[in-house]
Amino acid sequence: MSTHEETGAAAGWLAFNLLWMSLLAVTVWPLLAVAACHHLFDDPSEAALVFGGVIACLLYPIALLVGPSDIAFMGAVMFLWLLIWLIPIVWLIRHPRDRLFQIVFIMILSGVSFAQAALGYLMILGKGV
């Protein structure tokens, strides 16, 4: 195996590991929030709020002006959540850094996910008040 092939294999391994580790880091908080408040849902589409609480707050003014359906709004929230997960990871894969930078980067993604889930959880709790 040549050095070029070994470098390509290492880059593929790095990309695969970064993708699944970051997916795990960003999905654990929303899944815990869904488990904690699923009994408060009026509609199953409200689960998208715990994935994108901050995103939902930013999209509400647009939704009020345009007036899309709940399904379109939740779809937009989930689409933007996927972009928030994928764009930084794709950037990190294309511009590899040392292991400490990758760990800190994934921890920051997990923190953003925690903030999104916490705000979504609070929004679901708040609608019942």
Descriptive report:
- This protein starts with a helix and ends with a helix.
- It has 5 helices and no strands.
- Helices cover 84% and strands 0% of the residues.
- The protein has helices at residues 3-37, 47-51, 53-66, 70-94, 99-127.
- The mean pLDDT is 79.
- Helix 1 runs antiparallel to helix 4 (70-94).
- The chain has one domain.
- It is mainly alpha-helical.
Give a brief outline of the structure.
This protein has helices at residues 3-37, 47-51, 53-66, 70-94, 99-127. By secondary structure, it is an all-alpha fold. It starts with a helix and ends with a helix.
- Low-confidence sequence ranges: none
**Number of helical elements:** 5
Amino- and carboxy-terminal Cα gap? 64 Å
- β-sheet strand percentage: under 5%
Give the integer mean of the pLDDT values.
79
Helix content: over 70%
Largest sheet: none
H and E string: HHHHH
Count structural domains.
1
Shape: elongated
State the secondary-structure class.
mainly alpha
Radius of gyration: 18 Å
How many E strands? Answer: 0
